[in-house]
Amino acid sequence: MDCKRILFLSPNLGSGGAERQMVTVASLFKDKGYDVEFLCYTEGDFYEHILKAKGIMVHWIILPNYFKRMMRVRSFIRKGGYDVVVSFLETPCFLNNFAAVGGRKWKIITGERNSKEKHLKSKRGKIFAWFQRYSDAIVCNSENARNMWLKYYPQYENKLKVIYNTVTLQPVSTKYIPKRNGRLHMVVAASYQYLKNPIGVVNALALMSDDERSRIRIDWYGKKEVLSGDTRAYDEAIELIEQHGLGDVIALHGETKQIQDRMNEADVVGLFSSVEGLPNAICEGMSLGKPVIMSKVSDYDVLIDESNGFLCDWDSAESIRDVFIKASSLTIDKLVQMGECSRHKAERLFENASVIDNFIYFFIYLFIDKHLPATDGSFPCSRLLRKIRSSVGKHLFDSCGDNINIEKNANFGNGRGIVIGNNSGLGINCKVRGPLTIGDDVMMGPDVMIFVSNHQTSRTDIPMRGQGSTSRKRVIIEDDVWIGARVIILPGVKIGKGSIIGAGAVVTKDVPQYSVVAGNPAKIIKSRL
């Protein structure tokens, strides 16, 4: 695949998480030998020094008139001769797609970090989403973001992929001293917006006793003015801190380029947002070996478990207070142990080389592999096609055996959590997600669907579409299984060795070894023994 010239389209190079992620990804592509450039159209140069150090050219189109700016950006992209144009965030993604109207030769990758449901439902959001038909791929940075897009725009299912953020740690110059002065030290890195919940954090501290407060210290770093002249969330938080006498417990600071130094000094890293894409601050904190306290947003069930942190409800001051108390009671040894668990998770999820390879091999699969003919023997080079797809699969799945086959239009998300054994494969037009384990010698017919989570339906006071999804449950398919065409397998099912699943079956429960099952719901027809 020829995609050596890559343009990253960003509003600016300000201190936001999306801008930081774009700079990181662009730098890593540059390190891989790609010709990388940036195009920005509003003021903000917080991260420009990183790009300059990498030798990455930055183009600026800053015009007060929005329409003129939009047309200049379109003209720049169309005349630039780029192979791929990558954009994150809503407006840059619109501009990226708008440039393609009228035909184009380059590939368009839009990165959707939007986790705000109201934006997707708004008139503006619907217009911008309509333009996503021009993109080649919509890359989300969390399963949560992908599921939200699927909820409102299922027509883009085959474009939606998940690739987690990269984490590049700068050299830290600070020393970590556990529980300095006998207090749990927490750092929060987030702008002062109501959705980031500084008010909830202050209210939680106000519920604690003087003794409980004496065991915790929070330092919050972020941009005070999210929109020009709008500091309401920051001002309200300061007022509450003064009202409750919490000045010795929590301090609200401005943004800083030394945020990783501040995190390194801390015992834990926190996040208390009501909505969030994949939170860069949490990913960086984990990579620094810090336990995490976070609200149940984004892919919290992937990032955090009892081994490396605590979860809370963003809209409950009592819930936040309770995790503060639990975390402040941890021994130093336990803090260090949980921090190491965070570090190990981060290495697996966010390692730079792994994430960039995911991008590269995903591009190869998206633009070449998935469109190759099926390997059913009707095409003269079936064996070669099988090898090509197999080689790409080894870089996308958690584990991949020998002689696997990924058929035409197989849809497997980002491949994370998927394990495939020897001589097995994914069938034509299948739709599967991890966590999924497929053993050796498994045959899969066309149009198979394997689900690992479902809709929440327990509440009747709100629509089911607004209740979210259940936690993911691994599907296990043991060795020597034949799955017929259009089979549906539900979350948590285990299909035993040597079984046959008849075409069209809906498998709702475990299948014993060497069974033949069929029907909806699938029932045992006979045993092969």
Topology:
Elements: E1 5-10, H1 17-31, E2 35-40, H2 48-54, E3 57-60, H3 66-79, E4 84-88, H4 90-98, E5 107-112, H5 117-121, H6 123-130, E6 137-140, H7 143-152, E7 160-162, E8 184-189, H8 198-206, H9 210-213, E9 216-221, H10 232-244, E10 250-253, H11 259-265, E11 268-271, H12 280-287, E12 292-295, H13 300-303, E13 309-312, H14 317-328, H15 332-350, H16 352-367, H17 382-396, E14 399-400, E15 405-406, E16 418-420, E17 425-426, E18 431-432, E19 436-438, E20 443-444, E21 449-450, E22 475-477, E23 482-483, E24 488-489, E25 494-495, E26 500-501, E27 506-507, E28 515-518, E29 523-527
Parallel strand pairs: 1-2, 1-4, 2-3, 4-5, 5-6, 6-7, 8-9, 8-11, 9-10, 11-12, 12-13, 14-16, 15-17, 16-19, 18-21, 19-22, 20-23, 21-24, 22-25, 23-26, 24-27, 26-28
Antiparallel strand pairs: 28-29
**End-to-end C-alpha gap:** 49 Å
Strand adjacency order, main sheet: 3-2-1-4-5-6-7
Radius of gyration: 25 Å
Number of strands: 29
Query: Structural class of the secondary elements?
Result: alpha/beta
Number of helices: 17
The protein's oligomeric status is: single chain
Strand content: 15-25%
Mean pLDDT: 89
- Indicate the low-confidence ranges by residue numbers: none
- Please state the overall shape, judged from the principal axes of the Cα atoms: globular
The largest sheet is: 7 strands, parallel
Helix amount = 25-40%
